[in-house]
């Protein structure tokens, strides 16, 4: 039985190695080589232990790093927003607005670095910039913050607490916060957003809209209202949100 299983694995190995090499899955190839070396030079049990151990470490590494994105608007369009870092020549940031996409549930496991990564986006407009670099985005560029939370299908108490603290800091600094493509009203995630005070801190249910474009329109309206109260009759940028690269 063991010989049959071993033969089947060896038979499939060339195809698997070629597949991972073709897709540039170098981390998977490295794991395969480590397990193979441990099995050959030590024992089968050591090889199995290495495979399980490294796999668990990879899961923990991915689970504890929030995969947030900064969204930009596709040039020549009004309602197409994608990851701005994926193709900077095709997508550009919206002036006066930071649009952040959270494509995963927020739990105790992945909110540890959430604030630090959001701060990096607010300061540099990219996650690839070193935290020690000089700030590139001014406060005026972050006066409206839009969260696309379509992927937040789950939220626990620890995640809600961290998110609430982040939003309170934004509001204290004078930024307005909007959510789009949020959870269904009456669902578990929505109830936690309400009970934790997140909905109230953002400005009520009116700041939860169905799309990024609606959030931008609402932000523009509030900019104009603030401008009228200040006596100039328009928002801070004197008009609608035009695209520009931050």
Helix content: 40-55%
Our count of domains comes out at 2
User: What's the β-strand tally?
Assistant: 7
Q: Helix segment count? A: 8
Task: Look at the structure and give the CATH class of the largest domain.
Answer: Alpha Beta
Mean pLDDT across all amino acids: 82
Q: N-to-C SSE series?
A: HHHEEEEHEHEHHEH
CA(first)-CA(last) distance: 62 Å
State the secondary-structure class.
alpha/beta
Large-scale geometry: elongated
Portion in beta strands: 5-15%
Q: Which features characterize this protein?
A:
single chain, 246 residues, alpha/beta
What does this structure look like?
This protein has two domains: 2-63, no CATH class; 69-229, STAS domain (Transcription Regulator spoIIAA). Strands 1, 2, 3, 4, 5, 6 and 7 form a seven-stranded mixed sheet that branches. The chain is elongated. Mean pLDDT is 82; it is low at 234-239 and 242-246. β4, α4 and β5 form a beta-alpha-beta unit. 47% of the residues lie in helices and 11% in strands. The protein has eight helices and seven strands, in the order αααββββαβαβααβα. α2 (26-41) packs antiparallel against α3 (44-63). It starts with a helix and ends in a 17-residue tail after the last helix. By secondary structure, it is of the alpha/beta class.
């Amino acid at each position: 039985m063991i010989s049959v299983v071993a033969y089947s694995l060896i038979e499939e190995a060339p195809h698997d190695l070629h597949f991972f090499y073709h897709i540039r899955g170098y981390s998977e190839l490295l794991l395969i080589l480590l397990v193979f070396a441990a099995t050959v030079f030590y024992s089968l049990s050591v090889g199995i232990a290495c495979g399980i151990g490294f796999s668990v470490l990879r899961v923990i590494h991915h689970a504890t790093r929030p995969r947030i994105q900064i969204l930009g608007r596709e040039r020549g369009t009004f309602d197409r927003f994608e990851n701005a870092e994926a193709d900077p020549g095709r997508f550009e940031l919206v002036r006066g607005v930071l649009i952040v996409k959270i494509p995963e549930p927020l739990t105790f496991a992945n909110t540890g670095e959430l604030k630090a990564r959001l701060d990096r986006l607010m300061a540099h407009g990219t996650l690839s910039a070193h935290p020690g670099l000089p700030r590139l985005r001014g406060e005026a560029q972050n006066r409206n913050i839009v969260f696309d939370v379509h992927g937040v299908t789950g939220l626990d108490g620890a995640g809600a607490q961290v998110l609430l603290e982040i939003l309170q800091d934004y509001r204290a600094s004078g930024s307005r916060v909007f959510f789009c493509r949020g959870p269904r009203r009456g669902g578990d995630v929505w109830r936690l957003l309400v009970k934790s005070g997140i909905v109230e801190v953002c400005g009520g249910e009116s700041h939860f809209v169905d799309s990024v474009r609606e959030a931008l329109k609402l932000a523009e309206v509030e900019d104009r209202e603030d401008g009228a109260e200040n006596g100039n009759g328009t928002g801070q940028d004197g008009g609608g949100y035009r695209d520009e690269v931050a």
